[in-house]
């Protein structure tokens, strides 16, 4: 029987792995790719030295640093499903693209280092997922090392992130004494030392919550302790609720060790039981577009420029929301009402890019673009114009003053800035009165990409003066008195001419709030 579009959509799971650098995102991603057998990705997961990844001609910065500037997409076939993993780079590669990638997924996996708990970048990325109300699954990693007490980690997770947690399994010891996990969800114990327990990887748990039979592990106090912890959790912990998971209000928590591969398979199997398939998307006019709808639709969430400097090409990453992609089909770009033939599309492979033959909701396709597409653009097929809800803007934290080096080349400077800002590569602010240009970003890399692209694509060299980190807060036009501004809260306007203060630090902001208690300051996301 022929599969309908809706049938195909049900086989898709599209997610991102979020974490603070070094928590183990790359290691766990590689495990997942391994289970799938096929590795498909754009660029590198993270600067791997293997020649396999060296074929793509990324822009110069990427080559120098051995990283992929923007998030990559990986496809894995697993258990009859097509899993799409969207990478969210960390460290200095962190940028607005990282946040925007979270707009294109249906769920997220949060990886936490058991020795460190909740770290700043995890918190930031979590916030974006929470705002979207998507399911968030937690993997507490590095149990093969001595880390913090599991109960302590769960408490921190709930308190810092303000989300309920439900342990799907519970560790039996850690570090050298890590014996495995007591798997609450699957009613079994998973062992790190099967050889000491009759060669069993798993032992079933009986009605009393104990292992039947005389195995080495049953003599261990670590096992007894875990069993007692689980009993306590069952009595005093949160209720398991599929509905709460779906709404992103309850996070199922798994323990394991990505490096040794322990618990990752168990995690993945439970994850696919609960992770949602692509759901409906809302348009600006409030219409709901079902993923099984016949006509193709999707939105651009990222643009990667200069994949090949010789051709000056760009790739627009499109998240498909409905319909079925076929090579050569025509779509309309809603913003410009222009028709576009989807002739040069790509999906992402380890060592090559392949032409897409078929794709449905949840899948990500790359469109070669010569400047017709912008971040946030909707493409659609059919007669009814369609515009998906705008992608959110994110509060920048880093700022730079920027001026052209050569005053004779002001025209290309302005054109370049305008286009890069429109594309979403960077945010633009101007000082309120003197209209000096200030760039805002969430990550340092955005400035480097900006400088590089302005020089290479617009032939404009710039002087960049770091202003460091600031706290940007918007104020209503009616509330604004220009005398409120001082050296510690620079008054600027954003690209829509809305007034915004750049506060030196938390202290300066609190001082302002105390002085003007009636003034309401707002942040972007
Ligand atoms: P990412 O920055 O989040 O992508 O982290 P990586 O996957 O690159 O891991 C950072 C470091 O932690 C690497 O040296 C890994 O080998 C190590 N690592 C990752 N997972 C584990 C684990 O489960 N146990 C231990 N001991 N080390 C791990």
From TrEMBL:
Gene3D superfamilies assigned: P-loop containing nucleotide triphosphate hydrolases, Peptide chain release factor 3, domain III, Translation factors
Principal cellular location given in the protein's record: cytoplasm
Domain of life according to the entry: Bacteria
Molecular function in Gene Ontology: GTP binding; GTPase activity; translation release factor activity, codon nonspecific; translation release factor activity, codon specific
Subcellular location: Cytoplasm
CDD domains, alphabetized: RF3
An example Gene Ontology biological process: regulation of translational termination
Keywords in alphabetical order: Cytoplasm, GTP-binding, Nucleotide-binding, Protein biosynthesis
GO cellular component: cytosol
Domain Tr-type G: 10-279
Parts forming coiled coils: none
Binding of GTP, residues: 19-26, 87-91, 141-144
Family: Belongs to the TRAFAC class translation factor GTPase superfamily. Classic translation factor GTPase family. PrfC subfamily.
Function of the protein: Increases the formation of ribosomal termination complexes and stimulates activities of RF-1 and RF-2. It binds guanine nucleotides and has strong preference for UGA stop codons. It may interact directly with the ribosome. The stimulation of RF-1 and RF-2 is significantly reduced by GTP and GDP, but not by GMP.
Descriptive protein name: Peptide chain release factor 3
Biological source species: Jeotgalibaca ciconiae
Protein's gene: prfC
């Amino acid at each position: 029987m022929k599969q309908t579009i809706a049938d195909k959509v049900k086989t898709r799971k599209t997610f991102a792995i979020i974490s603070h650098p070094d928590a183990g995102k790359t290691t766990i991603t590689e495990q997942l790719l391994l289970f799938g057998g096929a590795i498909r990705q754009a660029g590198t997961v993270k600067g791997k030295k293997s020649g396999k990844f060296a074929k793509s001609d990324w822009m110069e910065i990427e080559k120098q640093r051995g990283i992929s500037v923007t998030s990559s997409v990986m496809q894995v076939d697993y258990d009859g499903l097509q899993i799409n993993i969207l990478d969210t780079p960390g460290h200095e590669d962190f940028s607005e693209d990282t946040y925007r990638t979270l707009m294109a997924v249906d769920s997220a996996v949060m990886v936490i280092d058991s020795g460190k708990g909740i770290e700043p970048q995890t918190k930031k990325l979590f916030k974006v997922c929470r705002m979207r109300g998507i399911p968030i699954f937690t993997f507490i990693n590095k149990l093969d090392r001595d880390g913090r007490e599991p109960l302590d980690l769960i408490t921190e997770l709930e308190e810092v992130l303000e989300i309920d947690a439900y342990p799907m399994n519970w560790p039996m010891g850690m570090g050298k004494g890590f014996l495995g996990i007591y798997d609450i969800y699957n009613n079994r114990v998973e062992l790190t030392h099967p050889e000491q327990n009759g060669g069993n990887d798993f032992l079933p748990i009986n009605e009393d919550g104990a292992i039947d039979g005389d195995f080495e592990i049953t003599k261990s106090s670590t096992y007894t302790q875990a069993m007692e912890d689980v009993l306590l959790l069952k009595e005093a912990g949160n209720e398991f609720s599929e509905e709460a998971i779906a709404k992103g209000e309850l996070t199922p928590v798994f323990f394991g060790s990505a490096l040794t591969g322990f618990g990752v398979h168990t995690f993945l199997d439970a994850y696919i039981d609960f992770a949602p398939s692509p759901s409906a998307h809302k348009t600006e006019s409030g219409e709901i577009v079902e993923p099984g709808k016949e006509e193709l639709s999707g939105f651009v969430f990222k643009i990667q420029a200069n994949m090949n400097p010789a051709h000056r090409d760009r790739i627009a990453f499109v998240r498909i929301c409905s319909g079925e992609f076929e090579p050569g089909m025509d779509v309309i770009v809603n913003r410009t009402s222009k028709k576009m033939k989807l002739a040069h599309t790509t999906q992402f492979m380890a060592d090559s890019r392949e032409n897409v033959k078929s794709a449905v909701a949840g899948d990500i396709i790359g469109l070669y673009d010569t400047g017709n597409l912008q971040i946030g653009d909707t493409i659609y097929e059919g007669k009814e114009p369609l515009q998906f809800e705008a992608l959110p803007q994110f509060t920048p934290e880093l700022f730079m003053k920027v001026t052209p080096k050569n005053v004779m080349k002001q025209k290309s400077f302005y054109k370049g800035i305008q286009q890069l800002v429109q594309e979403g590569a960077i945010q633009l602010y101007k000082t309120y009165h003197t209209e000096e240009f200030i760039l805002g970003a969430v990550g340092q890399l955005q400035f480097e990409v900006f400088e590089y692209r302005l020089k290479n694509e617009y032939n404009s060299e710039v002087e960049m003066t770091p202003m460091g980190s600031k706290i940007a807060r918007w104020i209503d036009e009616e509330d604004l008195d220009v005398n409120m501004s001082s050296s510690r809260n620079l008054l600027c306007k954003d690209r829509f001419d809305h007034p915004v203060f750049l506060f030196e630090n938390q202290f300066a902001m609190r001082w302002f709030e105390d002085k003007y208690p009636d003034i309401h300051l707002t942040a972007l996301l």
